[in-house]
Write a structure and sequence with these properties.
With 108 residues, the chain is mostly beta strands. The protein has no helices and ten strands. The structure holds FE2/S2 (inorganic) cluster.
Length: 108
């Protein structure tokens, strides 16, 4: 069973940007696309740990601000030819509120 935590209004997350949610163990970047789809990734680039939350969203991808790797928001995988994967977290929008799957139970 999944518990959901209300973390923000959808309007609190900048479109084509992200908001960071801190848990006891991990910082999670919650992204909002042009279509108002949301995705949650660990805020650590699989290349050298850049803050993905400060990257630019295009389509369902974010470009890391440090060396421009492109990370798929749904899978957390780097686009080829780069290789690496960032952890994803369950996230959903209901009635204009954004809910994160209970991250307190998620290991970092
Ligand atoms: S740290 Fe993200 S591309 Fe290098």
């Amino acid at each position: 069973m999944n518990d959901w935590i209300d973390i923000a209004a959808l309007s609190d997350i900048p479109r084509l940007g992200a908001r960071v949610v801190k848990t006891a163990t991990v910082e999670i970047a919650v992204f909002r696309t042009a279509q108002d789809t949301v995705f949650a990734l660990k805020d650590v680039c699989p290349h050298r740990g850049g803050p993905l939350s400060q990257g630019i969203v295009h389509g369902n991808t974010v470009t890391c601000p440090l060396h421009n790797w492109k990370i798929d928001l749904a899978s957390g995988e780097a686009n080829a030819p780069d290789e690496g994967c960032t952890r994803t977290y369950p996230i959903k929008v209901e009635n204009g509120r954004v809910y994160l799957g209970d991250a307190r139970r998620q290991a970092a």
